[in-house]
Each structure stands twice: as C-alpha cells, then as structure tokens.
Amino acid sequence: MVRSHVLVCGGTGCHSNNSAAIKREFETLIKERGLENDVSVVGTGCFGLCAVGPIVIVYPEGAFYSGMKVEDVAEIVDEHLVKGRLVQRLLYKEKSDEHVVKALSETNFYKKQTRVALRNCGVINPEEIDEYIAEDGYQALIKCLTELKPQEVIDIIKASGLRGRGGGGFPTGLKWQFAANSPGPVKYVCCNADEGDPGAFMDRSILEGDPHAVLEAMAIAGYAIGAHQGYIYVRAEYPIAVQRLRIALDQAKEYGLLGKNILDTGFDFDLEIRLGAGAFVCGEETALMTSIEGNRGEPRPRPPFPAVKGLFGKPTILNNVETYANVCQIILKGADWFASMGTEKSKGTKVFALGGKITNTGLVEIPMGTTLREVIEDIGGGIPNGKHFKAAQTGGPSGGCIPAEHFDIPIDYDNLISIGSMMGSGGMIVMDEDNCMVDIAKFFLEFTVDESCGKCTPCRIGNRRLLEYLDKITSGQATLQDLDDMEQLCYYIKANSLCGLGQTAPNPVLSTLRYFRDEYVAHVVEKRCPCHVCKGLARYTITDDCKGCSACARKCPVGAISGEIKSKFVIDPSKCIKCGVCMETCRFGAIVKE
Amino acid sequence: MKSIADIKAIRDKMKGQINLRDNKDAEQEIRIVVGMATCGISAGARPVFNAFVDDVASRQLRNVKVTRTGCMGMCALEPIVEVHIPGEDPVTYVHVDPDKVRKIVANHIVNGNVCTEYLIGEERK
C-alpha cells in the first residue's frame, strides 16, 4: 500500500539541474531499502519556484526540499522515508527556522497565488493520463459532449470574460463565435505553443506539467466551432514539452478521448503536432498558419481574419497554450466563478515568468489586478543584494517597461497598455539600479532585428536603422536631434509594419524613452552611461594610487597605457578598447572605471 | 476505447491515491501520526502503519492523513500512535497492533469515541 509520494520536479529548470538523476537515485535507493511498495516516486511538471531547484516534495507531510543534489537523496530516504524525520537542512529556507512544516500553500511564494492554468503543474505526473483524470481531467469534455450544445459552450466562454493569454488579449469567446458563424464543413483548431519571447516560459511549463489540459480544451473548442482536426504548433526547442505532448496524445487516443467517435458520442476530433523551427515571427498567427501549411513562415495582411479564412483557407481558431489551460476549469466551475476573479475588463488569472534581478526566479500565477509591488516584493521575494527596483519589462520585445513610479499599478490588460507596456505572453523581467535602460532597449531591438522575417520594408529596414541609432547613442556619437529622429522612426515603423512583430518592435525603445529619457540624454550629452553598462562609453583612468609598476601597460592588448617606471601611468582614451584587462591586472586598485 | 463510465471509474480510483498530495486544507484534516524510529519499527510500527493506511483507504476517509514521525521518547511503549483531530486535544495510543488499529479507526476516527483502553497510562492497569 502506497503511503508516501515523492514528487520530483521534471520542469525545464530542475531538469537541467539534474533532476532526472535525482529521480533515478530515489528509485534505486527506495528499492534497496525494500520500500518500493510503500513509496512511489513521481516526476511532475514545474512547481514554480525555479530559483531554488531542483525541488522534491514528500507527501503526506508536504515537506518541501530545495536545492537537491544526487548525494542528498540517501539522507532523505534513510531519515525521512524510513524513519519519518524531516531533513531540516534541506528544507526550503523560507521556513527552515520553524519547527513545524507548514503547508506549501502558506509560504509567501504560494500564498498570494491562485493557480488555475497551473493547477496541475507540480501535482500530477504529466505522463500519466490516469492522474490527470483523477484531478477531474476530461470531465469538462464529457460535460460538453453530453450536456451542452456547441453554442452553449461558446456562451459560457464568452460570459467568463476570458481573453487571449498570448499577448493581444482578444476575447476568446468572441473569437470562437466568429469561427462558429463562418460557414463551411471543414474548420480547424490550432494551438500556439511557439513561445518565443526572451524570458518567457509559461506555455512551456504548462505543456510540460499538464499537457492533457491543452488537448482537452482543444477538443472542446473543436466541438464548439464544429472542427474535427486540430494542430499544436510547438517549438522544436522545447524537447521535454514535445515529448510529453506526444505521450499525452497517444494516451488520449488509446482511451478514445481523441479520434473518431469520442466516448461513443459521435463527435470526431483528432490532433497533430507540428514542430516550429524557432522563428520568432511564427508566433504571429498568420505566419504560424502559413508554417503549418508547409510554407515559409511569413505573415500576411489581415483581414481576412483566421476565423473567416485561416489554415488551408478554412475558418480557424488559434489560441495560446495558457488560454486553453483555463478553458476546462471554466466549463467545470462555471463562467461566474472565473469572472469573479480579476478586474472589470480582465477576468481570471495570469501566469508570469519572473526573471532578472529577483530573488524567487520562477513561475507565478496571480489574479488579474494584483499590484506589481505584490508580485515583486511578496511573491518574488524582492530584489537581491539590497538593490532598488528600477523597472520591470513585460511583454518581452513587444512590450515596454513599468518604472518604479507605477509600482502600485494593478496588473491587467488595460492598465498596462495605458502606461505604454503590455501584458504580452507573460514574461516579466525585473531590473534594478545597475541596469542601463538604453542597453535594455538595444537588447530587445537586436532580438527583433534578428527575427524580422523581412517581408515588409518598415520592419526589415526600419528596425535596422533604429538599432543603428541605439548603437550611436551607446557609443557616444549621437546628438539630441538623433533622439527626436529616432522617436519619429519608431512611430513610422509601428504604423506601417505588416504584422505584430514590426508593429510592436519599437515599443521597448518608446517606453524607455518615455520613462528614462534622462538616461538617453546622459549618453548623448554627457557621453556617459549612468549605470556603467555601455562599454562604448566606459572610461578607464589611472588614479594617484599608481605605483608605476607597468603591469597594466604590459597586459594592455592595444598598447594604450604608457608611463615611466615608478611614476604614474596614463591611459590614452583614443586607443583604449575598454576591455578592462588593466583593471583586473592592477594590484593596487589604482585603475577606476567611470 | 473507454466509455464515459470507465473514465469516471478511473477518476474515483485514482482520486484516493492523489489525495495524499493534497495538503491545501491542512488545518481541517485529521492526522494519524505513527512513531517510526528504530524503536517503533522494531516493536512493530510498520504493520501498524500499513493497517492504518489500508483502513483509511478502504473507508475512503478523504480528510485523514497517515504520517510518520521519529522517536517520541517512550520507546518502551512503542508502537505509539498519536491522533490529531482539529479543535481537540491530541490523543496518544500505546502498544498499538493491527487489531487495535481497526478499533481506533472505527471508534475514534469515524465515530469520535476515544478508545480509552489503549491510552497512555492505561497500559499499567
């Protein structure tokens, strides 16, 4: 009789920190101790607290072990599993000073979260359909097929107020309605799992932790709009997600939950996986569908919208992974339950991938309307090393930054747009006082320039020119006129680009210009980077502490340092390439960077 | 291929197993704690523990958790079992064996009547 479950996180973060070996070690040692009938070892999806991974949770105690190593496994098996004593030294440190182990849901990290899309991540084994069924899996599909008419399903989704979680925030129910209204016997349901924003890993974690939730929701969508075929477009760079999706698909087909005549109700719906080759533009809906068709992933003008003429020219709905992950819960618990969470125009919860200068790097799901302060200070554990919050970037390369003055803003679609950022798919990169905002804008723009598909001129050439302006600024060659011209160019690109990629690419520049213009001006006028990040503007000088040992001059790769032994040396700024070797070499701390 | 009834049957069967991982309502649940240090194990705590797990599962008591703890310090009285019911004082049973387990579950956990004959302090009478 199984009396204890050992849950080992198999999300991407923990997996790359060797959690698979930890799981194997548990299995081996448990067998050696003869406990294999008492204790079951379960690989799960992401628990969310990636910063302290690899994570192991032992139930029924709910002991949360963090930062696990393979060598630690023996101690947990011998102490905890055999003798029932918690291994205090390995317990998650937020509560290691306490004697009693609190429920996970009481830790600061989980207390303010509401897990809807992530409800099964870190709870069930994603490779085991029976565990998903135990958590009411496929009950929503059964309910739709046996109790609800297609239009009733759409009405529930509409009433819930669910909006697309991929970035645009278009009402999901309305999208389904358009596709249902489009005439024709052949329609398609697509899932956008081509999550490309730097720093975003929500969809990845859902696919890795709860793939059946997406399959079930797609079948429901197919029933609602009258489609019998669906495609999941997932990036090939997500090997674990792809593998678990494949396992889930096979299991669902074996159980007759996908395929012909589902559960003997007469409804047919089949799903296929399509792998994306890692082009950012393929996250754009028209480019994604072009790619599924087997063509080069390039966008096309809208209208016609996909709901009218989409994949293979047929009416199509395309939703993102996280959107689908909410659908089954809405069907089971009702539209009112979902609409009771969140703000007036943004209902439900949103998953954010916290990254950057934050203590608890990881995955959090919060009700809409939670303030940025709660996310960063309470859930995220604040900024490490006693630094101060400067800004948070949401929406990745399409979004903008939220500066400290808006720290108390409730997070929802409309609030973020009103301050010049956007929800995006949910990456949230936190920056502290050491981050140069010009450099951040440049980072995102470099990304979009690389990823522009080149079909339309404003995006292909405009963004390249924009990047050149930023290069000028960060190397100290720009004028104030350039700042104004750059802003003009931003608006031009936004107005004239073909697809969402180009239309949003200048956003990081515009939003940093709006909130941190003084930093741009410091780069341009004073030729200095206030945060000492931009290499082109750094200046190395030798102070009076110089003993004249000549060590730096001998190390300098370009011969920019000269002087006489036993007297102060000098750096020639016109030759210096700012490599920093001299500063590392000096034993007297006589070289400073400004 | 499964039928709708099959899916519901799988759900009911698996729910009992997954239930172990649910400590959302930790304050509301009844905890049965078995001393499982060396002293407890050698006095027969393992069959006691398994008896509790079996009994709780077969009665489908969803709000009851069976857990282990280390040595409680009174090794002579092992196997020791503590029953924590929210809002009530913890109750300590000593010299427990699988037969006593069934009585404890039936009388105490299900019906709320403490099995006074197995309590600590009673063993010397």
What features would you describe in this structure?
The complex is a heterodimer of chains A (594) and B (125). By secondary structure, chain A is of the alpha/beta class. Chain A folds into five domains: 4-106, 3-Layer(aba) Sandwich (Glutaredoxin), CATH 3.40.30.10; 129-338, Rossmann fold (3-Layer(aba) Sandwich); 349-432, Ubiquitin-like (UB roll) (Roll); 437-524, NADH-ubiquinone oxidoreductase 51kDa subunit, iron-sulphur binding domain (de novo design (two linked rop proteins)), CATH 1.20.1440.230; 539-593, Alpha-Beta Plaits (2-Layer Sandwich). Chain A contains 24 helices and 17 strands. Chain A has a five-stranded mixed sheet. In chain A, strands 2-1-3-4 form a four-stranded mixed sheet, covered by helices on one side. A four-stranded parallel sheet of chain A has the order 7-6-5-8, with helices on both faces. In chain A, 53% of the residues are buried. Helix content of chain B is 38%, strand content 15%. Chain B is built from four helices and four strands, in the order αβααβββα. Chain B has a four-stranded mixed sheet. The radius of gyration of chain B is 16 Å and the shape is elongated. Chain B has helices at residues 4-18, 38-42, 45-58, 98-110, and strands at 30-35, 64-69, 81-84, 91-93. Chain B has 125 residues and is an alpha+beta fold. In chain B, a hairpin with a 6-residue loop joins β3 and β4 (91-93). Chain B has a single domain, classed as Glutaredoxin, CATH 3.40.30.10. The chains are: A alpha/beta (594), B alpha+beta (125). The A-B interface holds A 1-5, 7, 38, 59-62, 82-85, 102-105, 123-124, 130-131, 133-139, 142, 146, 255-257, 263-264 and B 1-4, 7, 10-11, 13-15, 17-18, 20-21, 23-24, 26, 34-38, 41, 49-50, 53-54, 57, 65-70.
Question: What labels describe this entry?
Answer:
heterodimer, A: 594 residues, alpha/beta, Glutaredoxin, Rossmann fold, Ubiquitin-like (UB roll), 5 domains, five-stranded mixed β-sheet, four-stranded mixed β-sheet, 17 strands, globular, B: 125 residues, alpha+beta, 4 helices, 4 strands, elongated
